[in-house]
Amino acid sequence: MVEFVASFIYAANGDHDRRSLWSNLVSFSSQMNHLPWIVLGDFNIVLVPSGISGGDFRLIPAMDDFQNCMFASGLDDLRFSGNFFTWSNLQQDENCTCRKLERVLVNENWLHTFPNCFANFMGLWDL
């Protein structure tokens, strides 16, 4: 039997409101020293500018907060297949905006324990 910890995320929309989530993840990570940990869900923020297609890039400071949280927590993206972008405003014209908001993050213990694990992202357009 393998023990692991799974954390399911639905982050707030506002940058300020997400800061307590980042703080909680960093604090919780110190308890994950020897356990595989997977953190998955809707983080409501992109990690890097390439996670945005269309629209504006005013999210840069919030991206830094997310990146710092991941680094301090020892979390990294799990390899994945399927759609890169996980959210869209579903417009078919020049106003189309896509984002990578959903992620599956894991710690090093997860990768060591489950080396063949990967995520598969299906978008609304696949349903």
TrEMBL record:
Please state what the protein is called.
Endonuclease/exonuclease/phosphatase domain-containing protein
Q: SUPFAM superfamilies in the record, alphabetically?
A: DNase I-like (SSF56219)
Provenance organism:
Rubus argutus (Southern blackberry)
